[in-house]
Write a structure and sequence with these properties.
Distance between the termini: 76 Å
Largest sheet: 5 strands, mixed
Strand order of the largest sheet: 2-4-5-7-6
Number of helices: 5
Shape: elongated
Helix content: 40-55%
Number of strands: 7
Strand content: 15-25%
Amino acid sequence: LQQVWGTVLIGILLIRRAQYRMEEARSSQTAIQVMEAELLLEQAKRADQSRFMDMLVHELKTPIAVVRMSLDTLAENTRPIQRSLRALENMTQILDRSASSLWIEHGAFQPMPETFTLNTLIRELLASTPDAERVDYQVSQSDRVMTDRMLLRTALSNLVENALKYSPPQSPVTLSQRQHTPQRQSGVLITVCNQSKDLGGLDPQTVFEKFYRGPAARGRSGSGLGLYICQEIVRILGGTIQCHIEQDTIRVDLWIPRSISS
């Protein structure tokens, strides 16, 4: 009789264990289904955001271009017209940087390496940059790199425009490059340095955060995305970027490997 009861109890325990395992499996399957549904919703949300941003950029850039062309054709080169042109340029930059930020978060920026001379890229960039005569470009040698040309140009353009915009009028901006080999990895260090009258409270650790705007940005149009985009592009290119503040001077050091595959 004891053996019979023992066998019955063991059977009951085995049945309950099987039921418990089945419940666990159902719970796990339900959790997986919930996660898959949340992932699909997030993907759909991001796709909607991307489509909306593309539509917004397209719809706003056309009237901005029309207004700019109309102002350019006016005979009188008056100060109000120049202010209007600068405002339109600021609006275009905000749109471009907002779209770039969204594309970065969606992983849409994939590097396409090509070999080119860094000096040539920088001189082309300065040739198309307003107020570029304030930039003192210091280079001692020609550096050839293999990286994504357009992504690097975007990052450097944001750095130079940022330095020009948030420094006193007519003050110089220094742009330099040199070979730098940290931890035996060959690369190029690009430095952008400018002065500023209002660096109090500016934290070099937070300037690369999304939407961050320092004290000097008060009263100026902007998106707070320029340095954030720089940081993300440099990360994609396998490099590093740092900000240093000394008295009334701010310096940004951007390092990229000589070859993106190294």
